[in-house]
Amino acid sequence: MKKIIVACGSGIATSTVARNALEEKLKAKGIDVTQVSMDQTSIPQLRSKADQFDLAITTAKFTEDIGVPVLNGLPFLTGVGEDQLVQKVIDILDLKPKN
């Protein structure tokens, strides 16, 4: 099981939008989303939770090294560059489409 944490300022609003968009895009690419666990948090809490995840996606600017890859999730809010971001997630986590 691959684990993704999505973070925004509050851990509620834009992280929910980004999480839902990522899940829908992964499904559309044939990825079995039951093999991916997603959680949400706030940016301030991200540092303390990151070691439990394989990938972090933030909807706010975040450049700190937290020991796991961090991707800017803004494309999930704007739609600009969304497909490229989804492909990065797939590549980083080595996700394969289900047969």
UniProtKB/TrEMBL annotation:
Protein name as catalogued: PTS galactitol transporter subunit IIB
UniProt xrefs under Pfam families: PTS_IIB
Keywords, alphabetical: Sugar transport, Transferase, Transport
GO molecular function per UniProt: protein-N(PI)-phosphohistidine-sugar phosphotransferase activity
GO biological processes: phosphoenolpyruvate-dependent sugar phosphotransferase system
Xref: SUPFAM superfamilies: PTS system IIB component-like (SSF52794)
PTS EIIB type-2 domain ranges (all copies): 2-97
Superkingdom classification of source: Bacteria
CDD domains, per the entry: PTS_IIB_galactitol
InterPro entries to which the protein is assigned, alphabetical: PTS_EIIB-like_sf, PTS_EIIB_2, PTS_EIIB_2/3
